[in-house]
Write a structure and sequence with these properties.
With 315 residues, the chain is of the alpha/beta class. It is built from 14 helices and eight strands. 50% of the residues lie in helices and 15% in strands. The longest helix has 20 residues.
Amino acid sequence: MVLEFEKPIADLEQKLLEMKDLAKGRNIDLRSDIESLEEKILALKKETFQNLTRWQRVQLSRHADRPYALDYIYEITNDFVELHGDRNVKDDKAMIGGLGDIDGRSVMFIGQQKGRNTKQRQERNFGMANPEGYRKALRLMKMAEKFGKPIITLIDTPGAFPGLEAEERGQGEAIARNLKEMFMLKVPVICIIIGEGASGGALGIAIGDRVFMLENTWYSVISPESCSSILWRSWDYKEQAAEALKLTAMDMKGNGLIDNIIPEPLGGAHRNMKWMANTIKETIIQSLKELDKVKPEKRIEQRIDKFCAMGVVVE
């Protein structure tokens, strides 16, 4: 999949491939031309990805090849065991969770999971969890707290499922309860936005001691398309909406809404998933080292203070 703003790069990469095939097939020395074109491609990539608009970053966060929660979990851990069900309604496959080992330490992973093809997307409900998904997440958080396991949440959702049946089963209450309970968890909680972070659907598993965003992700109360449809009665103004929402990782860091930004490979996380997973792993390990030094009561106090300070203007 090639995004619109990536087409000039893709065209040059195709030329490079053709040049290499020509050199190999006809035994022609084109090394200098190949090196020159490679340098040109690298320069264009740097210029393009360092100057992305907010809407382009939204597009990159939704790239079809972008790694999802389970991709990272299986890469980071050696023995992940997925746990299922909320013990009330059913197992929501849009919300995944389970225990995994990071360098000898057992941690609880929780995250939203999308699908790669039509069947998987339907099964995962496009990463939009129902109330039972948030209740499953809370059940696993409480289990982690009981056994003293840190909690890592991986956020990637266009929002909580807005269907009538979700509202009937208490979607708003489930998310609100998660917010309340996550503030009081005695174990370290690290939240990482790996793709889309939309509305309460994201916030329902995003109250933590450390909140990180990958470089090409977004976090907002509403998606650009939905914002555009409300303000302009059309999705055609989604690019203007994205600019107005200021939803990128840089925006969030500048406004003090996240703790830090995790860099991505040039071109996006899907360009080098193993490198990206290792960077996330190192961030988790370093954060846990810092949080382990703080007593649980103090961690809770700091967690509450951090979120209470958001949106407060001091003159």
